[in-house]
Fold this protein.
Amino acid sequence: MVMGGKGKSYSWLSLCLLGSTIVNIYFLSDLYIDGKGKGKGKGKVSWGEEGAAKAEEVASIYCSNHGRAYLDGVIGEDGKPVCECHTCYGGSDCSLLSPHCAADADRSLSLSLLCVCSGDPLFLEPFWMHHASSSAVLISGWHRMSYNFPGPTAISEVLDSHIRRLHHVAKNALTEGKYIVFGGGSTQLLNAAVYALSANLSSPASVVAAVPSYPLYKTQTDFFQNKNYAFKGDASLMSNASYANTNVIEFVTSPNNPDGNLKEAVCKGPCVRAIYDHAYFWPHFTAIPSPADEDVMIFTMSKLTGHAGSRFGWALVKDVEVYYNMMAYIIAAEMGISRETQLRALQLMKAILRGDGKEIFDYAFEKMSDRWGKLSRIFSKSKRFSIQEIPPLYCNFFDKVRGPSPGYAWVKCEREEDLDCTRVLREANIIGRAGSRFSVDDRHVRLSLLKGDDDFNLLLNRLEKLVDEEGGPEAVSGF
């Protein structure tokens, strides 16, 4: 009986030991094994939850609605990123408005002036704050570490398909039968297209653009100094019969930057090749008369979603040889576009395409149309200044005739003595981009309407004051 009792005691102890071992294994596995929702302790935070919590903590930092704090911002004394204030605002929480507006003045100009020459599309920031959840991206530390995507290209096939869907919704471009090339914004793709179109020509190509023209075309073409092409200026100079046998590559900016009007190629003939820069060919900047269907068309995410800092653009290309040459350019330049950039672009496209995909275009058009209306009313009271005329047009997207909503005001000084309109505006603490930058005279100046509400409202105030100082003159028509 005694031996039997001892046996029962040993058996009980063995069971206790086994149970203790099982419990310890469970808790050890909880500490060291990341299962898919299993084996995690109740108090443990996953890497995804931790990353999201940090992002939300920084996004919630109070900056008086006149600035933002960012995860990669400068760290303050409290160990948190500091507020990065909008133009003319300062202080730790961006609550202090400078009466003299120590503003972003295009980096090289006096800080006492207001800069409205930037194409920074911050007017869309409120839209994305409203869609914070659907547009957010959380990236694991091991996300796509390889150079390659599965398959023969360095692009996301899923992003490719979403871009095609987006063009179908916007009704601004036909994608069937076309190849897509990704680039570092439209900037890189513009030169990639010039490189591709000039690669196999019998003689160097003359690169041209109708004036007023976007200055980057000349700047970038000159910078790369390629033996196969050179910038030759205004497209109209190459449009007569004497240049019929000259190889020409024409940049066609439609809508045009700076004046917002839709454009067609000026040069014609068998030796002419066109690159259509459709950065602003979206329903919020222009009427879409019909879907674009040119041989080479370039778009950029910055003017679609406002995410200029992500540096992502794409080209729609008909010819397979041009496509391969453009891909070769991109691969040689940077081994393809950042995988993180492609992931963010994909998430933004998904957010846009939720529902019928029209919300961002409705929002952005309403905002830009409202801005143009306010600006037009100010200039209608002036005979010293005028702005461009953009006629109402039928829009394939809205299925009706609609008015203008351009990204820029193309201002002209009407007084004979005002030869330098940029200087005239600077005296009113407004900086615009001089007409000579667009290969026309300096009676013209470009003002950006794309920036945030703080910048735009300040621009309106400065312009209203400037026009009021004329003494209530009669209106002058646009030009």
User: Anything to note?
Assistant: The domain at 157-352 is CATH 3.40.640.10 (Aspartate Aminotransferase; domain 2). The first helix runs from residue 2 to 32. The chain has three domains: 38-99, 114-125+358-468, 157-352.
